[in-house]
Amino acid sequence: MEKWQAVKQDSGINKELPANLPTRKEIIENSHLSETIFDESKYRDYVKSFEDRVSLLQEQEAQLLSDFDALKPHYEKGGEIYREHVHIVRDLLSDLSRGIDNMLFQRDLFPVDKKWFLVESQVETLSLQVRDMKYAMANLYSVGTYHSVTKGASFTKHMGPGQYARKELASPYARSGLEPREMEAYFAGLLPSVENTKSETILTANGMASLTTVLALVKSEKNDGKYLIPANSYYELNKVFRHMLREPGVKDFTFQPPETLLDHTKNDDPDMIFIEPIQNDPEMREIDVIDLVSVPTKHDKRFVIVDYTISGQNIALHDIIEKSNPRNILLLISSLHKMYEQGDDVAPAGVIHVVGKTAEGLKPITEKLRALRAMLGTNITAPSLLLLQRISPDAVEEYSYAIGKNVTTLARDLQRINSPIVKKISAAAENESGASRGLVFYIHFMQDVAPRFVEGVLEKAREHKLPVMEKSAFGYRQTSLSIPGELIVRIAPGVENSRQVEILKQIFEDVLIDLSREARSNRS
Q: Using an 8 Å Cβ cutoff, are 321 and 484 in contact?
């Protein structure tokens, strides 16, 4: 076996999709779908969904091949155990590339039988292979994860790139061949460009690490200032606020109702304002960020922290930046993997965009954030840095839009159902394109039926072979359900195509009808 064998010369990133996508007539004739419910627009949605998934697979394959190629300098230095693992990863990559080739160039993607959509299962299998590949690649770049005491390896005989980097680099990232500033510059390029505005970007371990880091910055700059925080913020955020802001030295911080924030900003002139454009709680209150950031201040600078995780890219970041008061320092934070991993969730990371009107004012702020990040231990981990995908801004926006559109479709349909056990549906308002500004919505029940609703949906989803999960998360490719309170269910749609959304709508309606019938029976 050669010491280093190329996995594949052609990544296939520019391959065309097969020409033999099924016609509308073929799908209707060879599936359970009827003429009346499978129209031309749904066929186009299906083809677009398929194209998006295949394109993402190709992008991920190319990124994995590029990352693997970066290991070449370390192969000669690594010991036997490390090289064995390199060979394993090489073979897995070859299998993945072969699988993608076979799928794209097989003669008949859509056999004429009841399993007309054979390629669905193939794409799903390949997606799981990509996920496994990311874990394997993370092992190659980790310190002691694979070549560790469990294998009896010594740090002098069986070194991977992590150990060499640890010796040679004085960097908190500690990985040779990984340039965090380059990755940060890439994510900086995803922020909307606004005239006469400057920005800096740093990455952190996750979204909560971003908040912790910016709060430490605000405390160091405005230790005796006034902090304005909306009541009913996400409970995890509240825990961080109470922990960090009740320490000695902080003069004043208050939790105020969202509808009073504008008046408090005008009257109290706070040094720091925290905003969730859409609150991550069952009421999903919306806060007018543009009105808040345009309020004048007597301070030389005011810090405005905007957590836009729950909104994805469905808020007007461009307008927020453009209309912000010149004395504001905007600290835009988000949990990166929600959108940029597009459902994989194997590389947790957070982002902080520091935005202001002058580059001179931003540089010391950014450098202080970097120092605080090192002191607090909120640095992004090396495996996460490696695994973050360089997805185009358009792809991120489309992914966020697809989820927001499914939120709108499903929430609107549930609101039309006159169920005696449903108190209300909470969903964020739609933007001009018809997608919800939030990535989740909530059902508020009149009775304690939330667990049975989730159980019923999961059971019917299994019957329809829909991958619905019970999971307290959003930003995934499939719908997730969770129970944040006794009478509440949170629904986080994925990027299901229109056919799948129609099935989901029917499942939700059927379960609500069953539960309503049960409630009437109990009363009688």
A: no
Residue that the structure tokens 């504001």 belong to: 328
What's the CA gap between 405 and 210, in Å, rounded? 28
Cβ atoms within 10 Å of 427's Cβ, excluding its own: 23
Q: What is the model's pTM?
A: 0.68
Strand segments, DSSP code E, in 387-505 are 422-427, 441-445, 469-470, 480-485, 488-492
Token pair of 91, please? 């073979």
**Cβ 350 vs Cβ 206: under 8 Å:** yes
Element holding 385 (H helix, E strand): helix 382-387
Residues 65 and 11: beta-carbon distance below 8 Å: yes
- DSSP category for residue 18: P
Query: Do the beta carbons of residue 385 and residue 426 sit within 8 Å?
Result: no
Around Cβ 236, how many Cβ atoms within 10 Å?
12
Cα–Cα distance measured from residue 48 to residue 24, given in angstroms and rounded to the nearest whole number: 14
Taking the C-alpha atoms of residue 74 and residue 160, their distance in angstroms, rounded to an integer, is: 7
- Cα–Cα distance for residue pair 105/76, rounded to 1 Å: 36
Comparing CA positions, the residue from 354, 294, 351, 357 lying closest to residue 320 is 294
End-to-end Cα distance, the chain: 77
As given in the structure block, the two tokens for residue 61 are 């394959």
Q: Do residues 479 and 492 touch, judged by C-beta distance below 8 A?
A: yes
C-alpha 394/C-alpha 375 separation (Å) is 35
- pLDDT by residue for the chain (524 residues), tens only, comes to 455 454 444 433 334 444 455 565 665 565 544 444 555 666 666 667 667 777 777 877 887 888 777 766 666 666 666 677 777 778 888 888 888 777 766 544 444 444 444 555 667 677 777 766 776 666 565 533 333 323 333 333 333 333 322 222 233 333 334 457 777 888 888 788 888 889 999 999 888 889 889 988 988 888 778 888 888 777 777 777 777 666 655 555 678 888 999 999 999 999 999 999 998 888 889 999 999 999 999 999 999 999 988 887 778 888 999 999 999 999 999 987 677 777 766 678 899 999 998 777 888 999 999 999 988 888 887 767 766 766 677 777 778 888 999 999 999 999 988 888 999 999 998 888 888 989 999 999 999 999 999 999 999 999 998 889 898 888 888 899 999 888 999 999 988 888 889 999 999 999 999 998 887 777 66
Computed from CA positions of residues 139, 141, 145, 146, in that sequence, does the dihedral angle turn out positive or negative? Answer: positive
Question: How does 365-404 read in b/e, with b if 16+ C-beta sit within 10 Å?
Answer: bbeebbebbeeeebbbbbbbbbbbbebeeebbebbbbbbb
| Structure tokens given for 500 | 């799948």
